[in-house]
Amino acid sequence: MYNTINDFLEYLVVERSVSDNTVNSYRYDLKQFFHFLSKFNFSEWKLIKKPYIHQYIKHLNSSNYKQRSKARKVASMRSFLSFLEDEDIISENLSDNFKIPTSAFISPNVLSEKEVEKIFRNTRNDSILDIRNRTIFELLYATGIRVSELISLDIENINISEKFIRCFGKGGRERVLPIHTKAADNLNFYIKTILPKWKSKHTKSAVFTNRSGKRLTRQAINNILSQICKHSHITKNISPHTIRHSFATHLLRAGAPLRYVQELLGHASITTTQIYTHLTAEHIRTEYTKAHPRAKAS
After folding, report:
1. Is 260 a catalytic residue?
2. Which end of the chain is more exposed for a tag (fewer CB within 10 A), N or C?
3. Which one from 73, 244, 245, 250 is the annotated catalytic residue?
4. What's the pTM value of the predicted model, to 2 decimals?
């Protein structure tokens, strides 16, 4: 079970580019969380139950830690549980119904719509690698697909004529995701023109490969996104998760129903999707302050 915590810590480094100090804080907090849970004698994370989480929060509340430390520990636990749900290891975020201190809330990192358009304007098409990389970015933003789903995507799970892809989470949960015409056209060109040059007998069904025909890794996708942002002069540290967050936030800001976004993201619980409503509320407040005469004057 502790290996899953190490996977989460690796995800923080590779996909969210967090600092060493932050990773160490997460490691310390989650080690404490893991130690507390060990008394319940379960062998897999999927067996964890809500009462265990409740007891852990009660344990923290009765401890002598400062409020700021309690908030950080709860935030670490929630981030880890969200990771478990996003990876289909658990079916819902078990901490969703518990009140979390406000200081523990961490907004997802997102790109603005202008930044996304800037990336599309500046993304190169000079080489076959450029075309593959643009296709990856386009598909991530078109679908909100998880990086684990992206790198395991197979040719037979793509329907260009009907404009959808089929992906599977770790628990075998299937989702059918629509793709818009631009994304479908780019994907079709890549599959027909670029991919055959790299085909390998070992990964003949894989969609996104390197020049040796091997499936791309999480780290490779992260490096590709970093290169794209650097070329587009985007200074934010972005990861596949950033694109997923941006996809959800932009849909909600444009008026998409929360339930619809939940289905697209593959969240078992709508409360996990509701984190994005916080971002849309922030956006509304910013626009309100810019537009309202009395707000502008204050």
Report:
1. no
2. C
3. 244
4. 0.66
Residue tagged active-site, from 215, 241, 245, 250: 241
Q: What is the pLDDT of residue 204?
A: 76
| 88 and 148 inside one domain | no
Looking at the structure, tell me whether residues 162 and 214 fall in a common domain. Answer: yes
Q: Same structural domain for residues 8 and 121?
A: no
> Which one from 70, 78, 146, 245 is the annotated catalytic residue?
146
For residue 39, indicate whether it is catalytic.
no
Q: Is 72 annotated in the active site?
A: no
Q: What is the pLDDT of residue 298?
A: 52
Q: What is residue 278's predicted lDDT score, i.e. its pLDDT?
A: 64
Indicate whether 68 and 158 sit together in one domain. no
Asked if residue 124 has pLDDT above 70, the reply is yes
Order of strands across the sheet that contains 174-178: 158-159, 164-168, 174-178
> What's the chain's average pLDDT?
83
Q: Which two tokens stand for residue 67?
A: 């409020």
- Which of 242, 27, 205, 9 shows the shortest CA–CA distance to 116? 242
Asked about 244 being catalytic, the answer comes back as: yes
